[in-house]
Specification:
The structure holds 2 protein chains of 2 kinds. By secondary structure, chain A is mainly alpha-helical. In chain A, 76% of the residues lie in helices and 1% in strands. Chain B has 2 domains: 114 residues, 3-Layer(aba) Sandwich (D-Maltodextrin-Binding Protein, domain 2); 119 residues, 3-Layer(aba) Sandwich (D-Maltodextrin-Binding Protein, domain 2).
Chain lengths: 295, 274
């Protein structure tokens, strides 16, 4: 083939790739447009404050009630509990891996932890339902083991690999010179880790936390199976809750097409989308700041 | 190169615009109650496989909408979880439609508790008070002291709808009820919790949970078919006049104990007696 032939081939390939990239972006944009088109009509019949701050979710009652406040609180509560657990476990594991574990252990452990992320959520949910819930009922004497704490714990299992992996990368990226300087100044290894390495990797760890939480708030199967599904404001960590994804997943199949309930569920999807977007934006911001400060 | 691209594009277009090639000779439109819907979907698939000349278009939307569609000539079969109202009958007559009723199954729900729960029977009034949140402790109904943990189906499920219409009497279910997404999940939740009460379709009963007598009547397919079990209702199909042609073929299939009625049992309802 002549040089011109190669050049033409190159152009084709470039165009095809651009086309494919354009397609995926286009479809994502369409999905978003669809989400808003199907969600916004609910406000034609319902005042936004009644929707966002209403306390009753009775979509099939006559007359129906579409208050999603308990659902929002449920989602945030579950995310908070899982966030606290996952950040604690994930960051501590990352610190151990980079600062304490010998290199061979680290090489084996890190992929293993990342493998945990491949655990299907339905398996995690089933574990929470069949194993953890009866344990909670037996040993803590709670009314139901399907509750906020159980859901948070299961979600933490699912987000620990992400938090740990991203935090570990951040910690590993801290220049060895910083550690050496600190040790040379007479600081112990613990002091070096806690006062020098972790603060230096702080923004990376922040990104890790945000990504972990964004994973938790959108996760559906686990909360559908173990959160209990009661649309109430939780008074304790052992109360059942009904997070937003669970409500959508459970009800969408039966909601009359293009009915008020259908639109309300899409509107919940919108709220959920905005929350995840918020978490991801914060994560990105933190990551960007990190890059600038290093550069 | 260009030719290859063109061929690729063509095959994509062909893939998108693919329609079932064998256009069916006859189409039966079925719509209505979401309670009956799963039976129809299950039986419908097998029916279509056995009768390639007939295509079924099955959708939900509620009993009222189904009967309305039948009266307006928009469907051949209306599924309904309640009997037709006299006003609907009159509306049909005015449109020249003569709704005829066929019973296809009996939908019966049974309240269940943990096998170790000493409570054996409740009244419908007690069940209503429990699910409305007025009775909150097992000792108020003769059990061991402890909070009653309510397990319910999701508010948009047919099972919930049945429970609501037959037990709740327009009252709201307490928001602290744990809503589960399937009959199986309710069984699972009740089997694992001593303080729980739930309700399920007859077909989902197993040994991991204990069924309760209601108003002094024992839950069994026999009492439900005899009309004595208080939380049971018949499920109907309405057609314009007695079923005929392809519609008759489908209805006969549904009533066959070896075919349609098997789907009824698999969906968790009670099959009709032979």
């Amino acid at each position: 083939m002549s040089t011109a032939g190669f050049a033409r081939k190159e152009t084709y390939i470039r165009r095809i790739l651009a086309g494919i990239a354009g397609c995926s972006l286009f479809f994502l944009a369409l999905i978003m447009l669809f989400l808003f088109m199907e969600g916004l009509p609910v406000f034609g019949r319902l005042a936004p404050p009644d929707f966002f701050f209403g306390m009753g979710w009775y979509p099939t009652q006559e007359p129906p009630e579409f208050g999603i406040f308990p659902l929002i609180v449920g989602s945030l509560a579950v995310t908070l509990v899982s966030g606290v657990l996952a950040i604690f476990l994930g960051v501590m594991t990352a610190v151990w891996l980079t600062e304490i574990a010998p290199a061979p252990v680290r090489r084996v452990c890190k992929p293993l932890i990342e493998l945990l992320a491949a655990l299907p959520s339905v398996v995690v949910g089933f574990f929470g339902m069949v194993v953890i819930a009866p344990l909670l009922q037996r040993y803590l004497d709670v009314d139901t083991g399907l509750n906020l704490f159980n859901a948070g714990l299961m979600l933490a299992f699912m987000s620990v690999p992400i938090v740990c992996s991203v935090a570990e990368d951040a910690l590993y990226g801290v220049p060895a010179t910083l550690r050496e300087a600190s040790l040379a100044l007479g600081a112990t290894r613990w002091e070096t880790t806690i006062r020098v390495v972790v603060p230096a990797a702080f923004s990376g760890i922040g990104t890790a936390c945000m990504l972990g939480m964004s994973r938790s708030i959108g996760e559906t199967m686990v909360v559908l199976m173990v959160a209990g599904g009661a649309g109430i404001l939780p008074a304790s960590i052992f109360d059942p809750v009904r997070p937003m994804p669970a409500a959508i997943a459970a009800e969408m199949a039966e909601a009359p097409f293009r009915g008020e309930h259908y639109h309300a569920l899409f509107a919940i999807g919108m709220v959920l989308f905005l929350f995840t977007l918020l978490f991801n934006t914060i994560a990105q911001r933190i990551a960007e700041k990190n890059r600038q400060s290093l550069g | 190169m260009r030719r290859l691209l063109f061929a690729l594009l063509l095959s994509i277009v062909a893939g998108i615009s693919f329609v079932p090639a064998a256009a069916a000779a006859e189409e039966i439109v079925v719509t209505g109650s979401t309670t009956v819907l799963p039976v129809m979907q299950k039986a419908g698939e097998a029916f279509m496989a056995a009768n390639p000349g007939i295509a079924l278009a099955i959708s939900g939307g509620g009993s009222g909408n189904g009967i309305k569609a039948l009266n307006e000539g928009l469907c051949h079969i209306a599924m309904s979880s309640r009997d037709i109202k006299s006003s609907e009958m009159a509306q049909g007559k005015a449109n020249g439609v003569n709704p005829a009723r066929t019973t296809v199954a009996v939908d019966a729900l049974v309240p269940v508790v943990h096998p170790e729960n000493p409570v054996k029977a409740l009244s419908t009034a007690q069940l209503r008070d429990i699910y409305a949140g007025r009775i909150a402790n097992w000792k108020e109904v003769g059990g061991t002291a402890g909070k009653i943990v309510l397990i319910s189906r999701d508010t948009s499920s047919g099972t919930f709808e049945t429970w609501e219409s037959m037990i709740m009497n327009k009252e709201k279910i307490s928001p602290s009820a744990l809503l589960q997404a399937s009959n199986g999940a309710v069984v699972q939740a009740v089997a694992k919790n001593r303080r729980a009460i739930g309700y399920i379709g007859f077909g989902y009963l197993n040994r991991s949970v204990k069924k309760l007598d209601v108003d002094g009547i024992e839950a069994s397919p026999a009492t439900a078919l005899a009309g004595r079990w208080p939380i049971a209702r018949e499920l109907f199909l309405f057609t314009n006049g007695e079923p005929a042609g392809a519609v008759k073929k489908f209805v006969t299939y549904l009533l066959d104990p070896q075919k349609g009625q098997k789907a009824v049992a698999e969906t968790g309802y009670i099959p009709l007696q032979k």
